[in-house]
Amino acid sequence: MTSMEALPAEEPVSDSSFDLQGHVSRAQNDYSEVFALYEDFSRTAESILETCLNNEKIYTHSITSRVKSIESFSKKVGRQSRESPGTPKYSDPLRQITDLAGVRVITYFLSTVRDVERVIRREFEIIERIDKSKLFEKEQRLGYQSFHYLVKLKENRNTLPEYAKFSDLVAEIQVRTILQHAWAEIEHDIQYKATYALPIEIKRRFMALAGLIEIADREFQAIEEKDHELIQAARSSVAQGALGGLEITPDALKAYLDRKYGADGRVSPYTYSWAVDLLNALGFKDLAEVDKAVAGFNDGEISRIVYGSRQGQLSRFEDVLLAALGEQYIEKHLWNRGNEDDWFPAAARVKMEKLRAAGVEVGLRKLPDAG
Fold first, then answer.
1. Would strands 147-153 and 171-177 be described as parallel, antiparallel, or unpaired?
2. Is 283 left (phi over 0), alpha (psi -120 to 50) or beta?
3. 8 A C-beta contact, residue 58 and residue 115
4. Strands 124-131 and 147-153
5. Torsion angle of C-alpha atoms 16, 20, 21, 27, degrees rounded to 10
6. Which end of the chain has less neighbouring CB within 10 Å, N or C?
7. Sheet bearing 171-177, strands edge to edge
8. Per residue in 302-338, pLDDT tens?
9. Please, what are the domains in the chain?
10. Which residues contact 231 (CB under 8 A, 6 or more apart)?
11. Is the pLDDT at 81 greater than 80, yes or no?
């Protein structure tokens, strides 16, 4: 059995003498036959989402998929109808239970939730979009927040041989922030373990936390937007040469070095962070002080004197700092452990001797706090 259309029709449900256990058993057998198909479908939906989000550089905390277990499916099929006790809630389980295949996307920021939805709309046919925060009163979910999408593959994918077998299947995609996810998981765990209705005091605490998490999500979003704004402002200042008072951050330093020494795509963000730590250890307070210290030095020439060839951007920058500051650079360097026999001071002094031998005046610049 490879598609939803191949599934047998359920017997009609009409009276209280209905064999509920037999209904569960038949549905379980039917689901067992297509379980592997749904498992494959959930992984495929996850892969489509992950690839598309990565291609657009939309960063998330995690993207995971799962297929509903046969045990969980059987429990759900065994639920009785509220309107007609004794009869099943799901008369046609494989068609009515829509979360057999599932994908969950957890984001860091609220704005990313919107970005993920845009990709879902483009890549899938959305059957239904559910905002769980609008349903919490009816479902007594105590402020649960998440967007759920029931989706199918679009026709353009269904025509491809590798996707054709999924043409009639539905998957549920959940999208929420990491704070919403933590809240929902804890709330679900407490609700699930409870053998009684939760006391009003507990419900009130959950509601209060839901409000705090909403505020926190908004604040994190505001921080992310402000960080982006500051990064753009710093890049603009570097481009204009307005370095006075410009904080030394990894992004600002990269922009400065790209402009001064040429871009180098081999340098990792971590390495720029390390370089910022070094400049802080040396006592520089803004990029104007850094620029003043290295002004007038030919980075390519210094690199060729020290190594015999032109090195990468940050290596050239560090050797210019060594040439400019001399012993001050060695004394305050992050790798100097105060041992004169240590490898770093010895290696740095070998470099200085090469520079002096080539006619470079070493150590003429002073650190900001050295006057």
1. antiparallel
2. left
3. yes
4. antiparallel
5. 160
6. C
7. 62-67, 101-107, 171-177, 147-153, 124-131
8. 999 999 999 999 999 999 999 999 999 999 999 987 7
9. 4-199 (3.30.460.10), 241-370 (no CATH)
10. 249, 251, 252
11. yes
Query: DSSP string covering 132-156, please?
Result: GGGTHHHHT-TT---EEEEEEE-HH
Question: pLDDT tens-digit profile of 27-36?
Answer: 999 999 999 9
- Strand partners of residue 172: 102, 150
- Euclidean distance between CA atoms 318 and 347, whole angstroms: 13
d(CA 310, CA 305): 9
CA distances from 124 to 40, 41, 46 (A): 16, 13, 12
Q: How confident is the model at residue 198 (pLDDT cuts 50, 70, 90)?
A: confident
Using the Cα atoms of residue 2, residue 4, residue 8 and residue 13 in order, give the sign of their dihedral.
positive
Q: Would you say how long the chain is, in residues?
A: 371
Query: Do the beta carbons of residue 38 and residue 67 sit within 8 Å?
Result: yes
CA atoms within 13 A on the CB side of 141: 17
Placement of tokens 């483009």 in the chain: 122
42-55: pLDDT as tens digits: 999 999 999 999 99
| In the predicted structure, residue 300 carries a pLDDT above the cut 80 | yes
The amino acid at residue 164 is A
d(CA 128, CA 121): 11
Q: 210 and 230 in contact (C-beta within 8 Å)?
A: no
Query: In the structure encoding, which two tokens stand for residue 158, read together?
Result: 């269904």
- Locate 141 and state its tokens: 């979910």
Backbone angles phi, psi at 255, to 5 degrees: -60, -40
Q: How far apart are CA 270 and CA 268, in angstroms?
A: 5
